[in-house]
Design goal:
The chain contains 9 helices and no strands. It has 156 residues and is an all-alpha fold. Helix 1 packs antiparallel against helix 2, helix 2 packs antiparallel against helix 3 and helix 5 runs antiparallel to helix 6.
Length: 156
Amino acid sequence: MKNKIKTVIEQLEKAWADDLPKTKVEIFNNAKAEFILSHDHQNLCALLSFCINLSFDTVVYDAAKEAIEIASHEGNKTMTAIYHLIAGKARGNYHSRYEFNQALADPAYLASIRMDDFKWLAKGPDSRIFGNDLLSFIGIEARRYDVMYDYLRLMT
């Protein structure tokens, strides 16, 4: 499935370079639908994260909200938190606070999830500094160090 996301990203880059807005949206929507139907969270996260970098924010935010609903319905707390993080990053400064709060709503649960299964997600900060857990990764990405600090303080 890695080849699929690579192909989609190449198609999006070409459509972006050729300034084809309808084509970009069509490629994005087709890939999003395929990844959602196949429950391919890894490739869906890669698609959403890549498109944030293309200033495709509104489309990414709407897709992340759809993914939140699906992951929540599945009872997948981990992916729900990750999709809230992506939605927050897509929203920008002021509006991201709600999404980041939702992503970090259960710090004890997030701290119990090891990043070993989510190495594909971590492209930025090195979460091993804080114990290789999802709480650290989301806290760093959302710049919500206060949540990590409060959790660590409660645990000691």
